[in-house]
Design brief:
This protein folds into two domains: 109 residues, Rna Polymerase Sigma Factor, Chain: A, CATH 1.10.1740; 73 residues, Winged helix-like DNA-binding domain superfamily/Winged helix DNA-binding domain (Arc Repressor Mutant, subunit A, Orthogonal Bundle). It has nine helices and no strands. The longest helix has 23 residues.
Length: 188
């Protein structure tokens, strides 16, 4: 299904590109509306300046209009525009714009990939669910469980601090795990 969608988009983009080569202004407008926001976000991510990002996008679309007639290869329009934006940004950096260079380097470092973002969100959601489950435990079981999770204390240290036996700590922890497993089953 997703492959069909990407193939359809690629075919549509190719048709638009061919129309632009024939100087079709409506096709150009469609491409601009389709990719302007995406390309602006990309430029802004690297430049951290609204005006510079707007200038880059304006330059790229002017260049697209001016140079399309000279391009004789089949291109993926989205990738082509993406490459044009990155190359223009890199040219600006090469022209010794130090603040742009710094923003570009920072953007390279801080851009997590989509998988990483999803993983972080899932981890955060799982932690939230776990702590909600722990909050439902009886007080002593909850305290043992939280200490086991949040500290590197041994069972003996937990027992000493709570004024209970080490056997009780182990028992509370094992029972807490069973209760949390049941809690997780009910959530699914």
């Amino acid at each position: 299904m997703l492959k069909d969608f990407s193939d359809r988009t690629r075919n549509e983009d190719h048709a638009l590109f061919l129309l632009i080569k024939k100087r079709d202004k409506e096709a150009f407008t469609v491409v601009y509306q389709k990719y302007h926001r995406y390309l602006y976000s990309l430029a802004y991510k690297y430049l951290k300046d609204e005006q510079l990002a707007s200038d880059v996008i304006q330059h790229v679309f002017i260049k697209l209009w001016e140079s399309t007639k000279d391009i004789n290869v089949e291109v993926n329009l989205k990738n082509y525009l993406f490459t044009m934006v990155k190359n223009h940004i890199l040219n600006k950096i090469r022209d010794n714009k130090e603040s742009i260079s710094l923003n570009y380097e920072n953007a390279q470092i801080t851009i997590p990939d989509e998988e990483d973002i999803h993983k972080r969100l899932e981890d955060k959601q799982m932690n939230s669910i776990l702590y909600k489950g722990i909050d439902l435990l009886p007080p002593q079981k909850k305290e043992v469980c939280l200490r086991k999770l949040n500290t590197s204390d041994s069972n003996q240290q937990i027992a000493d601090e709570m004024g209970i036996s080490i056997h009780t700590v182990k028992s509370h922890y094992q029972e807490s795990l069973k209760m949390l497993k049941e809690y997780f089953k009910d959530i699914k």
